[in-house]
Specification:
- By secondary structure, this protein is mainly α.
- The chain has one domain.
- Helices cover 78% and strands 0% of the residues.
- The chain is built from 12 helices and no strands.
- Helix 1 packs antiparallel against helix 9, helix 5 packs antiparallel against helix 10 and helix 6 packs antiparallel against helix 12.
- The radius of gyration is 19 Å and the shape is globular.
Length: 280
């Protein structure tokens, strides 16, 4: 599902902030309708819980806005590859926030991912480097909300986490649109194509995917989930070639870097399995 998000940033004819605003708006409405039918409680136990969820909601909104800014300035493939650096941040954020033991293996794998990004950025233009900066900020925000959600999921159901984070992200972005003077009638003048793609983005790529992601972080840990999500560039690049013709834009270096990232994803579970076996 998330493999489509970068593609939709190019297909939908809106600026980054309106795209994310519609994304979270659709997600909140759909979750608000579906969760009560599934008998999922949305009751908060304390104001502290709300503040925790509100903080992560703002982080999520910032992550998505910077992500779409990167795509808007460059390609969908570049925007999604930047998210591969998420694993590096998770390596040091998770021990700090959750108290999990620091892993040198995870750090090493994360640094190899950075090396892959180096190949990708070897022949960038000035605008591409600006896009890269936005993409790297987005990756840090993705790591931060992933680790925080992993901790919150120990005491809260994923449905509650997702609903309130999307709701706060929506309020935050609404305030941002008003502050930027972009809350105008033109914002609501959407083509039929944009409406359908926004619904797909909000329902399938956000509500469903986000709920599943929070549950997976709870079960597998933030690092393993974020490293596995690095397969997202593969899906996005293939979709970008098929739908956007980006193979005519990116060169050999881009595919070398992408290959390095994919190898890291495949090697990670194998190394962990080998190292976790007791010595005979």
């Amino acid at each position: 599902m998330w493999g489509f998000t970068g593609i939709l940033g190019k297909i939908i004819s809106l600026d980054p902030i309106p795209i994310v605003w519609y994304r979270v708006l659709i997600a909140v409405v759909s979750l608000g309708l579906i969760l009560p039918l599934l008998k999922r409680s949305l009751k908060l136990n304390s104001f502290r819980e709300f503040l925790q969820l509100a903080l992560v909601g703002i982080i999520v909104a910032t992550h998505w806005v910077t992500f779409y800014m990167a795509i808007d300035l460059s390609t969908a493939s570049l925007g999604i590859l930047c998210l591969s650096t998420t694993t590096v941040h998770v390596t040091w954020l998770e021990p700090l926030i959750t108290g999990r033991k620091f892993s040198w293996l995870e750090l090493g794998l994360g640094l190899i991912v950075i090396y892959g990004i180096y190949f990708v950025s070897s022949d960038f233009s000035a605008q591409d480097y600006v896009a890269l900066a936005y993409g790297l900020v987005s990756a840090f925000m993705a790591a931060l909300f992933s680790v925080l959600n992993g901790k919150l999921a120990q005491t809260m159901p994923p449905s509650k986490i997702t609903f309130y984070e999307m709701a706060v992200a929506g309020v935050f972005l609404t305030i941002l649109l008003f502050a930027r003077g972009e809350m105008k009638p033109e914002l609501f003048q959407l083509s039929a194509k944009d409406i359908w793609w926004l619904l797909f983005l909000g329902l399938a790529c956000t509500s469903f995917a986000f709920l599943v992601n929070v549950e997976l972080v709870k079960r597998l840990g933030a690092f393993t989930v974020s490293l596995s999500i690095n397969m997202e560039p593969v899906y996005t690049i293939l979709l970008a070639i098929a739908l956007l013709g980006e193979n005519e834009i990116v060169g050999t270096q881009f595919y070398i870097g992408s290959s390095i990232i994919v190898v890291v994803v495949l090697v990670n579970p194998l190394l962990k399995r080998i190292l976790s076996k007791p010595a005979i």
